């Protein structure tokens, strides 16, 4: 793994750095490249702007590894409000959550109960609930939570990381719940016995799992989403889907706000289902460090912002 990527991922866990960096006005300006603002209204405003381009959206409030039960209750209530606001505004927007935001470190039972409430709300408002995947220490518990909630509510999806060596088996084990899977490469610092260290191996595993999911979607056993900005992979999987004559509503492409905007628009204009994941919230430091780790060239953008008048 490149040193710069390792350094940013290590920095993402540094509380001192987080406090100091987040106070800097230039840092707040730079982060705007990837998030429209800190409030729910900012995210919904950005979601509305994507509608004319036929791009749907996913919103997520930043913040992870919360400590107390009351914090998790507040996050659940925030997302309940978000579902209502989305519904009222008539937006093609769904919600994505991190299990640790909903108290997974504190109690898996409480986290499960929160997910159940949010899943019920997603159904009631005609939306969807998505569960993000965090570092590898959470995978077993997150899969168990997903299995539980998905077997009771239909429109629930989960992110699965192609860089984990275990992922092909995890995909097979989920097939009985007809999963909606957002396949991503994986954004955390993991040891080599857990995750493929070389990008080439991650890309190969992404392609083979993607093809497997497309096959499963043919008879309705899975709904694949390709969550990547890697246009070589995206084009490869879309052409596989075309060759299989899969209807275009059987699979989707999801990307992050501020990344590959032109490709998002082009894919939507070609008639593919595209969603853009929009983050908001005050706790953006670890998430922002992961974005820098993915593309260390982004640091030049931060520097330019720091020195710009
Ligand atoms: C919708 C969505 C949801 C996600 N959810 C999760 C999750 O739940 N758990 C998780 O671990 N990870 C998640 N991720 C992050 C993912 O794991 C990758 O870290 C991230 O998508 C970067 O990898 P890539 O697939 O774009 O491929 P890469 O090979 O890293 O990048 C391909 C190309 O995309 C562009 N690009 C990629 N990243 C950036 C960036 N930060 N800035 C500018 N350009 C960039 C570059 O042009 C690069 O050459 C999610 C990603 C997306 C798109």
Rg computed from alpha carbons, rounded to a whole number of angstroms: 18 Å
Largest sheet, spatial ordering of strands: 1-2-3-4-5-6-7-8
Task: Summarize the main sheet.
Answer: 8 strands, parallel, barrel
Tell me what the CATH architecture is: Alpha-Beta Barrel
Number of strands: 8
Low-confidence spans: none
The percentage helix is 40-55%
Q: Which H/E pattern describes the elements?
A: HHHHEHEHEHEHEHEHEHEHH
The span between the termini is 35 Å
Give the overall form.
globular
User: Which ions, cofactors or small ligands are bound in this entry?
Assistant: flavin-adenine dinucleotide
| Derived structural class | alpha/beta
- Put simply, the count of helices is 13
CATH fold-level label:
TIM Barrel
Q: What is the percentage of strand-forming residues?
A: 5-15%
CATH class bucket: Alpha Beta
Mean pLDDT: 91
**Count of domain modules:** 1
Descriptive key words:
alpha/beta, 8-stranded parallel barrel, binds flavin-adenine dinucleotide, TIM Barrel, globular, 309 residues
Give a short synopsis of this structure.
By secondary structure, this protein is α/β, with parallel strands linked by helices.
Question: Care to describe what's here?
Answer:
The chain is an alpha/beta fold and 309 residues long. Helix content is 50%, strand content 14%. It has one domain: TIM Barrel (Alpha-Beta Barrel). An 8-stranded parallel beta barrel has the order 1-2-3-4-5-6-7-8, surrounded by 6 helices. Strand 7, helix 11 and strand 8 form a beta-alpha-beta unit. Helix 1 packs antiparallel against helix 12, helix 6 packs across helix 7 and helix 9 packs parallel to helix 10. The two termini are 35 Å apart. Flavin-adenine dinucleotide binds next to strand 4, strand 5, strand 7 and helix 12.
